Amino acid sequence: MAAAIALSSRGRPESAPNPNVGCVLVQAGRVVGRGWTAAGGRPHAEAVALAAAGEAARGATAYVSLEPCAHAGGRGPACSDLLIAAGVARVVIAAQDPDPRTDGAGIARLQDAGIDVLFNVLPAEARRAMAPWWTRRAEGRPFVTLKLATSLDGCIALADGASRWITGDRARAHGHLERAQHQAILVGRGTFDADAPKLDVRLPGLEGRSPQKLLLTSGSAPAGWTAVAAPESVEGVDSLLVEGGARAASAFLAADRVDRLLLYRAPVLIGGGRPALGDIGLTDLADAHGRWRLVDSRLLGSDRLDVYERIRTI
Amino acid sequence: MAAAIALSSRGRPESAPNPNVGCVLVQAGRVVGRGWTAAGGRPHAEAVALAAAGEAARGATAYVSLEPCAHAGGRGPACSDLLIAAGVARVVIAAQDPDPRTDGAGIARLQDAGIDVLFNVLPAEARRAMAPWWTRRAEGRPFVTLKLATSLDGCIALADGASRWITGDRARAHGHLERAQHQAILVGRGTFDADAPKLDVRLPGLEGRSPQKLLLTSGSAPAGWTAVAAPESVEGVDSLLVEGGARAASAFLAADRVDRLLLYRAPVLIGGGRPALGDIGLTDLADAHGRWRLVDSRLLGSDRLDVYERIRTI
């Protein structure tokens, strides 16, 4: 199942607005098919894995990160019907599909056809891998990642604004990979005016993945950019990467619209530089605790990346 | 040898002003004696290990983190003579002693007695374990550790000064352990006036280890404290822990008097709070690079501790 969930991440962000799902077919201990949701949402992961397995799917176990859909659409048959037709013996499901057209109906259809179904085996992990889709579906807003690249003392630039470069090549390459995994990127007006950032993905093979460009501004946006008046106004995307500067970052944090923090930290001290954040509305230290959980930490060259997730109790 | 170097750390800071040395005696693959420099500098590590081994020292190999001394003093015989008298067959030395009374003379005396000597096997590691003694001996100044406890965005307090508590219990306990390993602790005038810190070691069994208290001030110091006018004016100790605030930390960094950074970071965001550092004299980002190397990183509860060392080319 972990493999199916890992595969599901390959569908991000191109499966949007459909969920990114992963599927692994196992026959007598051997993987006979794998798949993930394709760009635009079709074909689904199960269809890809079944096509790869061919006759080997008969009697196999299918591991899927999300409940197979129960609704046939203009773009293809329902996955639960595909699994039944292929003769799989068993389906293991990480998380149930909250879409009212499926939500248990996929499981029921499989069981009615005599297939052994095990479900909700790794719901939290599956939801994390599909966080953008899940957040937009549950809350009608994008899943927001905030990127901060700072010195050890939390500065994003010298007092005169100089910020090239605080972090090194590998951290910057990782930042480009994050861009490729988002549908949209946002910067604030100050950063736009100062840096005129391109926000494209400069990684071999991923140049085509450059996301939509959003500008947080009360005014209008130049050609190629979309103006966004407030953190609450971002629409039409599942995933958003906020790249700076301090004012845009603070606005998203003050609105509690940040779900994930990427903290790239270089082994340098600046002292008296520009802080990563301005006021985010905190008045009592006790309120700051219990909001962020470290989920990943790694060295990128001599820089450190710490990834935190917002602890939400929804 | 790694074991001998690890043992040497147990002598810190109480062996000062003598070097903290570790010694392990191995006979036919078994450890027959261990020792480290005692409080006040005597007995030496070798004497302790030889006493523990007794007759088992005959024919043994002695691993010592620093070249055995060649000079007998009023407080005991030279360690090289002790090793010869005990009949050890072989001496392995991590680093040569820069003290002109020994500096190769210990090795020569052992060799003249027919003992097989291997030396300079782990000089950098031994020097790191004896960094306070080594720094004061080589540069006539203490080895300085700067402690910073910050939020993820590099703040040490809210804008109104509130800083209790940013980090958690385990990080604070680790801070007390660091206090116990230093001969002196320094705070700046602002921190003294605002917090009246006790700077004692609140750890069971280590209460007696509370170090000297220094106050960075152009004025005088209250009872129990020693006034220090500038980072360059600290005298009489091998090791100094700078605990804050931002102005004291910045003064030591601006003077390039910090050798080691302890960065405790809590998983909280403050935004618009008090920065960890003020101006440290940096005008070009390029100059900030290549100065600090990460040497340890660990989680203390939900806080992270990163330890950096100043890269010096002496």
TrEMBL record, chains A, B:
GO biological process: riboflavin biosynthetic process
Cofactor binding note from Swiss-Prot or TrEMBL: Binds 1 zinc ion.
Stretches assigned to the CMP/dCMP-type deaminase domain: 1-117
Pathway(s) per entry: Cofactor biosynthesis; riboflavin biosynthesis; 5-amino-6-(D-ribitylamino)uracil from GTP: step 3/4; Cofactor biosynthesis; riboflavin biosynthesis; 5-amino-6-(D-ribitylamino)uracil from GTP: step 2/4
Superkingdom of the source species: Bacteria
Keywords, comma-separated and alphabetical: Metal-binding, Multifunctional enzyme, NADP, Oxidoreductase, Riboflavin biosynthesis, Zinc
Residues that bind Zn(2+): H44, C69, C79
The keyword Secreted belongs to this UniProt entry's keyword annotation: no
Protein function: Converts 2,5-diamino-6-(ribosylamino)-4(3h)-pyrimidinone 5'-phosphate into 5-amino-6-(ribosylamino)-2,4(1h,3h)-pyrimidinedione 5'-phosphate.
Family to which the UniProt record says this protein belongs: In the C-terminal section; belongs to the HTP reductase family. In the N-terminal section; belongs to the cytidine and deoxycytidylate deaminase family.
UniProt name for this protein: Riboflavin biosynthesis protein RibD
